Amino acid sequence: EIWEGHNIADFVDPEIEKKLPDLLAEEELREKAGEYDSDLDSDDEETKEKLELAKQIREKEKLMALENHMNKSKAESQVSRLSVRKQERSMGRLEEQMQELGVDVNLIPFWISC
C-alpha cells in the first residue's frame, strides 16, 4: 500500500506477532541482568574524574571566549562605510573645495546649499 507517497509495506514486519514473545523474553533477561541499572556506573571514581575534567574544560572554554570578546572590543573600532561617506561629503569640505577652485560660496543661493 502507498500512503503519503511511501510504501507502507517497507515499514511493516509481517512476522512481528511471531517475534514478539521472543523479544519480550529477551527484554526480561536484560532487566534481570541489570543492564538498565544506571546507578552502577555513576558512582565509580573514573566517572567522577571525567565529570570533573569536563567541568574544568567548560569553564576554560567560557574564560577563553570572554577573553576573546574583551580583546575584540579593545581592537580598532570598525567604522561603517556610510559614516565615512558622510564625513567625506560634509558641507564644510564642499565649501573648502569650492573656495580652492575660486568659487565664492556666499554667492550660491541658500536653497542650492541645503
TrEMBL record:
Name recorded for this polypeptide: NOG C-terminal domain-containing protein
Domain NOG C-terminal positions: 1-16
